[in-house]
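Entry 14. Structure prediction run on the chain below.
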Amino acid sequence: MTSSRPPLRTLLARLRFLATVKVPKSIAYHFFLFRLANIELEGLNLGCGASRIKGFCNIDANRRVACDVIARVDKLKLSSNSVGAIYNSHVFEHIPRAEAVRVLTEWYRVLRPGGKLYLCVPDQEVLFRVYLDNLPLYDTTEGRYLVDRACYLTYGGQANRHDFHFYGYSFTTLKSLLESVGYEDVRRFDRSTSDIEFPRDISVAQVDSFQWSLNVEARKPDSPWAKT
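Output returned:
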């Protein structure tokens, strides 16, 4: 009689996989134990992928990456005012425009007063300029590459159902959106002057010497009368 149970080698492989993705911490998170225990975190790295930040809680919905917690990033099972900083690199453009304010408000909720949100998205102003400047040169190899690359970075790689961009932002539009939620001191940030050891991820990438990533920081006000 053939056993229906998986062989020992398969079970061991599954256990090793579970160990790499910190399943116990994920279970605690999804059962609201972080919130019930009012755990305070130095920071969150949302949609971390393979780019971890030391000392932060690294969260990703992909169970195949070595994150700390397997979870979505649009609704956080954490106490209000419990996180010192939030970083996310090229995640926000994957959130539908209709959900953008709700998600920014949720991130605002968990930030401590004075805490900062670090947000990296494609810079549509730069990408539109690259597209329009090179469109007359589309019959050349370089012109075609730059036009097509600008479109790729605008709309996403579209390799799977998660690899699509719902919306594009410039500094002007993103600043307005952040301020509408309650954030203040919205500005571009220089990672070289920050106390946080940001990962060398896609937000520092360049295409033919132009910086196409819009990297912005915004602060939750210190005022007790601020939006919560």
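Residues 15-21 have pLDDT under 50 and may be disordered.
Filed with the rest of this week's runs.
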